[in-house]
Automatic annotation (TrEMBL):
Belongs to the GlnD family. PROSITE patterns: ACT, HD. CDD domains: ACT_ACR-UUR-like_2 (cd04899), ACT_UUR-like_1 (cd04900), HDc (cd00077), NT_GlnE_GlnD_like (cd05401). It comes from Methylocapsa polymorpha. PANTHER family: BIFUNCTIONAL URIDYLYLTRANSFERASE/URIDYLYL-REMOVING ENZYME (PTHR47320), BIFUNCTIONAL URIDYLYLTRANSFERASE_URIDYLYL-REMOVING ENZYME (PTHR47320:SF1). One of its GO terms (molecular function) is [protein-PII] uridylyltransferase activity. Keywords: Hydrolase, Magnesium, Multifunctional enzyme, Nucleotidyltransferase, Repeat, Transferase. Signal peptide: none annotated. Its cofactor is Mg(2+). This is Bifunctional uridylyltransferase/uridylyl-removing enzyme. Pfam families: ACT, GlnD_UR_UTase, HD, NTP_transf_2.
Amino acid sequence: MLDTVSPARRRRSRMILPQTALIDRAGLRAKLAALHAGGEPAADLRKNVIALFRAALDQGRALAQKALETNGGGLACAGQLAHVEDELIRAIHEYVIAYIHPEEGDAAGKACVIAAVGGYGRATLAPGSDIDLLFLLPDSSRGHGERVVEAILYVLWDLGQKVGHSTRTVEECLTEAKADMTIRTALLEARLLLGDRRLFERMRTRFEREIVAGTAAEFVAAKLAERDARVVRAGRSRYLVEPNVKEGKGGLRDLNTLFWIAKYVYQVREAADLVGAGLFSRSEYRLFCRCEEFLWRVRCHLHFLTGRAEERLTFDHQRQIAARLGYSTRGGLASVERFMKHYFLIAKDVGDLTAIVCAALEEKQAKPYAKLDRFGPGPRTQKMFATGDFAIENGRVTVPGPEVFARDPVNLIRLFWVADRNGLAVHPDATRFVTLSLKLIDAKLREDAEANRLFLGILTSRNSPEIVLRLMNEAGVLGRFVPDFGRIVALMQFNMYHHYTVDEHLLRAVGNFADIEQNKLTGDHPLASEVLHSIGNRTAVILALFLHDIAKGRMEDHSLAGTAVARALCPRLGLSEADTETVAWLVENHLIMSDTAQRRDLGDRKTIATFANCVQTIERLKMLFIVTICDIRAVGPGVWNNWKAELLRTLYWETEVVLAGGHSTIDRKRRVAQARAELRSALPAWTDLDFEAYAARLPQAYWLKTDLAQKTLHAKLMNMTEVEMPGPVTHIVADSSRGVTELTVVAPDHPRLLSIIAGACAAAAANIVDAQAFTTTDGTALDTIFVSRAFDFDEDELRRAGRIAFAIEHALNGAIKLQDMVATRASQSSPKLNTFRLHPEVTIDNTLSNRFTVIEVSGLDRPGLLFDLTTILSRLDLNIASAHIATFGEKAADVFYVTDLSGAKITLPEQQELVRRLLLKTFLKPLAAAT
């Protein structure tokens, strides 16, 4: 089982260059001999020896890189790099035993065995990979062997090689392998490079007999647990838009794990032997090879491109790799999108192969049986769907053969319906038969009433719809049965906001609905849990979630195009005309609630009135509220936070008041009066006269936009500026429940105040998520900004906020220049943003608010952008009443409610054009040049 086969014999298809062309050991040997015959000083001699080895290594690697870049194969490159390393190590060993630690007689060259282990043991090596070596020593002459090993390692280290190594006897190898599964895995793929073959074979024979025999279940359990932990670290989904080529789900490590397990359980030496062992069919083995070749090609290009062992395929590398691999723009998809679509389809194929191996292991009782949901309850005990076409094998629903689908194509949908209703996984054999029968999913089946009824039952199931839909998607059924869904399978969105492919995002959105409905997210979404259970048409909401992004990747607006898809699909699934229109409306408007909550002033009556006019009914408000939450949560980890939750709840309650005709709560004036009364009660030490004077200074919007805790704090801060300290006052609150830190500034008002605050935040790399600005009747500014948390612990968060407050106070009195601080921070920013191209836009609207001009600015985000934008507005003598800051990945979408210094809207066309022109310039050049 331990590999002694040469790279050329193992994978002849890898070789694009003759092996002798990669490194010339004979020539190297002659040059080394000439150096030693030259009588140079020891220091110079070692330096020149290392230079010879480095030149040989660099030449071999350069030839492998050139072959790869001229459309060579990934496995060929990995094999060539492994061969270069093999020959280098053999040459170094020859040099050491010839000139540093010579040994006479028959023992010459056999003082130790050198074996490649781990990935290097498979005779594949990525350009930036570590070199894993086992030095196997005989019990006799161990001292001499250790000296040889040390000399070899020093040469490798001088060459800058990253070497993982161990020096052991046979007995020590077996002892360590018995106790450590990582060492056992490494020895599993040990490959002899040089030394005493009999010693190596003795170790191999004893390893198979004493360690491997009878321990298959133990090994499989350990490797699968290790895989689960690795996938969690790299991201649970194989559809992450910045995947880890090596460690991620569907990556090379998954293929390695499959082969380790198969090698251990089936006692095979080569992947091709898995066909004879009955694990893979020939087509599945070819699929294994295609996946391995593609992933190796991407990995080798990635390492050469970055000059290091970079395994994450980040946005800033994706375009370059796509170009290296020859992808072009086609069919409405950019070259990078076509490349990544191919990548995700390969990752899906790796998942299919994983399922096949796991099912076979169950049959050999080498792993536990599967469940539909590993984290949920076991299979339900209710009676199976009685058609005679399905059976249970090893806890999975299966079919005897593809004839089940040929006889009744509806079974292609019913199979998954049965799995859902009984809480069973689908057997990989059944999935194979489904894949072979996909051509049966035609226009006739799509119009079949029973097939559509079963599919709607899966989609609206109260069990595990996300899991079953994902099984259907990976089997190819979902994209065939709903062709519009097939268009977005494995389609990535080339931006930093969405973490998953479009199809994965839709399935996760449906899963979020199920989680809320099953009260799994009550702690995060108490209002949503209450609202969802009061919705009269859950089917419409689920369908809207399934369809809301289904038209992504088209030339037209995806929300509008998605409505056409909804109007075509819903009647097919049996929905009434009214329900179809409800789904279409939700799809068309699925972004409006999120957009309004994050980018509008919720204290402005016009905002609520406009939104309520769009929604029209409380039932629609409820449905849109649920769709919005499920959509945002499905974007990716960290996108949803308590700050967004609070904004959405505020918008929901304010709109409900309007839609209920004002009967569900008190009117606006009474709410202001009640807010004043609550604050008065919270300030018992104040006299009535002092309180009335203070309250009269505040605008009406203030009473509605702030909660009691904020009002109480503001009153005390305002009092401090008059009684205790004359200068500006800042106050910090780390609010972990909302995921933000709140910074309040009380200071004499002037147009640059918000710009100074934004600059201080930019200098501290703090991301502003919202801002409120109020001005009292006597000219005191009361500004509150909210920055997203950067640290887990409040102490760290408060220290960062303290630096921001220090910068604000000193910038206000002219002690520091924020411009320089922001420029320094911008120079340290990640180059990733340079990968994206966004056309900046500025819109100026006087209809969105009764009192303010609303300026919307969107474009490529960068450190200091908000500082630049607010500086422009202040230099134009515009007063910013409130700012609403939203960032969607690389896209900044900021909204400012402004007036001129007289409190009037910006109505003159020439003034609007000046504002627009200067704001757009901030995206093109530094602020100093823009103004």
